[in-house]
Design brief:
mainly alpha, 6 helices, 0% strand
Length: 137
């Protein structure tokens, strides 16, 4: 009897996971688009600044588009302390540090929390649908 419960729970988990793959794709695409736009902005500003004032630390985080997007992703996902990247922008002025901090705050508290809530709701609906299908059979 416990095996039936275990397999049923596993089936529900797998079904819920599969049902969230399509929304996950679109959510990741949205997040990538947000990071790309911010990455273009920060890369452009840093490259303009480093033409006259070379700064290896700033170039390490925001020297080209790939490193900018990677820095932004790591900043919102816990890949490293985002304060280091914010400090690298300090020679540009407090505005750019604040803009970077607003990006991190917006993505962490708004975008990622909305995405988490959406996936939880989707998984709950999938589990309810699975339960209803089980009752029908």
């Amino acid at each position: 009897l416990w095996i039936v419960r275990f397999v049923g729970a596993l089936r529900t988990l797998v079904s819920s996971l599969l049902d969230t793959l399509k929304p996950l794709f679109w959510a990741m695409l949205l997040l990538l688009l947000i990071m790309y736009i911010a990455g273009v902005l920060f890369t452009d500003v840093v490259l303009e600044h480093t033409k006259q004032n070379p700064d290896r630390n700033m170039e390490r985080f925001f020297g080209h588009l790939g490193s900018s997007v990677q820095t932004l992703f790591r900043s919102i996902s816990g890949g490293f302390d985002w304060g280091d990247a914010a400090d690298a922008l300090r020679p540009l002025g407090e505005f750019w540090v604040l803009l970077f901090e607003l990006f991190v705050g917006f993505c962490t508290f708004a975008v990622l929390n909305v995405m988490t809530g959406f996936f939880c709701e989707s998984a709950i609906k999938s589990a309810q649908k699975d339960h209803e299908n089980t009752l029908d059979n």
